[in-house]
Structures are given as C-alpha cells and as structure tokens.
Specification:
Shape: globular
Helix content: 55-70%
Strand content: under 5%
Order of helices and strands: HHHHHHHHHHHEEHHHHH
Number of domains: 1
Radius of gyration: 21 Å
Structural class: mainly alpha
Largest sheet: 2 strands, antiparallel
Distance between the termini: 38 Å
Number of strands: 2
Strand order of the largest sheet: 1-2
C-alpha cells in the first residue's frame, strides 16, 4: 500500500504530467509539415505502448483514504488542462489556416493529431473532473467537452452509463461480436437521446418542465455554440472545418475506449427487468504502467465503477481472479478494435472464458448478445 505521505511529493505525480509532452510535439508537427504531421498519434499511442513493453505493469495500490490535500499535484494536471487545450486547439487553427507550407492532406492529418490531444487526454481528464463534487472541476469538465462538441457525454455517462452498464439500456456497453464501426454509429445515434431522456426524467421527478433553465443541455448548447463561433472567428470556414476534424477525432477515440472497456461483459438478468449490481468483473482492466500514466489510471476501470468519484491516483488495481484483464493497454487494444476480425479473434475467446468463470449457470447467451433482454427499471 502506497502511503499518503509518499503521494504528496511532485516526483510521484510527475509521470502523469507526461501528457504535456504532446503540446511541443504538436507545435513541431505543424511547423515541419509533411510526414511530420503524423507524429502526434505515434507519440501518444506507440510511444506509450512501447514504454508499457519496457516498464511492465504497476499493481501497487495507494491508500484509498488519502485526503485531497495530499493529491494536489495529481489534481493540478487535470485542472490546468482546459487552458492548455483551448490555447493549443485555437492556436493551431490560427496557425494552420495561415501556413503556406501545409496542404489539405497535411492539415487533415495534423488536426486528426490535435484530436489525440483533446480526445486521448482532454476527454479523459474531463471524465475525471465531471465525477468530482466541487463546481469548479465540473465546469472545467464541461468546458473540455465543449471543445469536442460532445457535451451530452456528461449526462449520458453519469446518469445512464454508471447506472445501467452491462444492460441493454447502456448504449456504450459493446455487445459480444459487435464490430467497432457498427458500434460507433449506434452510439452516435443513441447516446444523445438517452442523455436527453435521463435529464428529462430528472426534471420530471422535480416536477419541472424539460425546457427549464436547470436542464444542463442549455449550458451544453451555449458552450458548444461559443466553441464553434470562436473557430470561425479565428480561422474562418476553414478553421471551422479543422475544428470539426479534431472534434470527430477526439470523439472517435473516446468511443474506441468505451468499446474496449466493457466489450461483451454483461450483468446477469435476475428477472422482471432487474439486474445484479455492478461488480469488478464487469469491466476490462489493464495494469500497464505507461498507458495508465497517459490515461490517468482509467484502465483501473473496475474500481472506477465501484467508486466513481474516487480520484484517479487512488483507484485500486484488481487482479485476474476478480476482474478480466486485457493483454495490452487500451491504446493498442483500441487499434486492434479498428479491425473487427482481428478483434474478435483476440477477444471473443476471452469473453467466453469470462462467461464460464463467472456465470457457469447461464446456458443461453443469445439474448445477452442480441441485447433483447428487458430494459432495467429506471
């Protein structure tokens, strides 16, 4: 157990600050142009995957009762990320729309890479922030999501995913044998609707109309509109196009991660629309050290579902006896997911082993696979 006193020192939090290395890489890529524009995704995905192979696993756990006062350096990197990301995204738009050495293809590749910053890092940090109780952190999470035009993710994640993960009501629980590309289209279609329905139900319980000012969709819309208008002001219509490229890139990375996190893992239906409680074995985990630095321990996903507001340095590692483990870190598994036949070859046997281990009594998995079980009670 890592004691609280050790967590106070910056040197222990410093590996999680490696995300800052993406900013000079973005500047270098934009300045050089040509093939250098592909450097950002290579840096974020392949470098950290290589470091995983070298550094191995980290299965140490911090004291979960460590107070926030001892986590200043961990919290700070997530709280300063919005101004960093904001400056990077709009600064790159300003530069690229005026750079004579960048052609259309180079700009597309470059802003796909900018989406690595706002997706692999920005959305992951917004996820950490939205789960916290204080208003400042929640606002910073909202601002980060607005820069990728995916503000509804907060409502969908907090009100739908965490309550209904592993059931037919949760769109982002990928079904067994469902390829990522089909999943991605389904999530883009269903998640905004489920987020809106969840907020409407919350307002109805308070006897308020759906268009009441407390509906966060008003805030989501205003922040996203401001983000779009600013992109036009900074870079014209080309700037808006490049902004949209980075936003789509970021969302694509988010949903790849969602796909990997729960693929094929379902909660047992107990009858009458009632499901078992969420347990550690309902999330795929990975203890790869470097990728957990990049993704601020998101791969300790079982513990996140157990304690959603637990800060990332305190998330606990689960071993293979308690929760299913991935063979590689999330970035490499996400790349495998882009090739459905390869993904199924790697993951379907693992899902079948998981079924035999945790649910030997279930003989027919067809309704789980097809998502045809009754919806859980609201």
């Amino acid at each position: 157990m890592i004691p609280a006193t050790k967590l106070r020192a910056f040197r222990n939090a410093a590996p999680f600050w490696l995300s800052l290395s993406l900013i000079p890489v973005a500047m270098f890529s934009a300045g050089m142009g040509g093939g250098w524009t592909i450097l950002l995704p290579l840096w974020a995905w392949w470098l950290f995957t290589l470091l995983d192979a070298i550094l191995g696993l980290n299965q140490e756990n911090a004291d979960p009762n460590t107070p926030d006062a001892d986590l200043v350096w961990y919290r700070l990197i997530t709280m300063i990320w919005f101004p960093i990301q904001f400056t990077t995204v709009y600064g790159m738009i300003f530069y690229a729309t005026r750079a004579d050495h960048l052609g259309l293809v180079e700009k597309l590749v470059l802003f796909f890479g900018v989406g690595v910053i706002s997706g692999t890092v920005g959305i992951v940090y917004s996820h950490e922030l939205m789960h916290q109780k204080n208003r400042l952190e929640r606002w910073l999470g909202d601002l980060l999501l607005a820069t990728v035009l995916y503000s509804h993710f907060r409502s969908e994640h907090l009100l739908v995913h965490h309550r209904h993960v592993g059931t037919p009501r949760d769109a982002v629980t990928a079904r067994y044998n469902e390829g990522f590309h089909r999943y991605f289209v389904r999530v883009l279609r269903d998640c905004p609707k489920s987020a809106w329905a969840a907020e409407r139900a919350m307002l109805e319980r308070r006897k308020l109309p759906v268009l009441h000012g407390s509906n966060p969709f008003w805030r989501y819309g205003a922040l996203q509109l401001a983000a779009v208008v600013l992109a036009v002001v900074v870079g014209g219509w080309e700037g808006l196009f490049l902004f949209a490229v980075q936003a789509l890139s970021a969302v694509w990375q988010l949903e790849l991660t969602n796909y990997v996190e729960h693929y094929g893992l379902t909660r047992k239906h107990l009858g009458g629309g009632k499901y078992e409680h969420v347990k550690p074995h309902h999330s795929w985990n990975a203890a790869h050290k470097a990728t957990n630095w990049l993704l601020i321990n998101l791969q300790r996903h079982s513990d996140h579902h157990y304690k959603p507001d637990r800060r990332f340095p305190l998330l606990q590692n689960y071993d293979a006896a308690e929760a299913p483990q991935l063979p590689y870190g999330y970035p490499l598994m996400a790349l495998v997911a882009m090739i459905p036949p390869l993904w199924r070859r790697r993951m379907n046997p693992r899902v079948r082993d998981w079924r035999r281990k945790f649910y030997p009594e279930i003989e027919d998995w067809t309704p789980y696979k097809n998502g045809t079980l009754p919806l859980p009670r609201l």
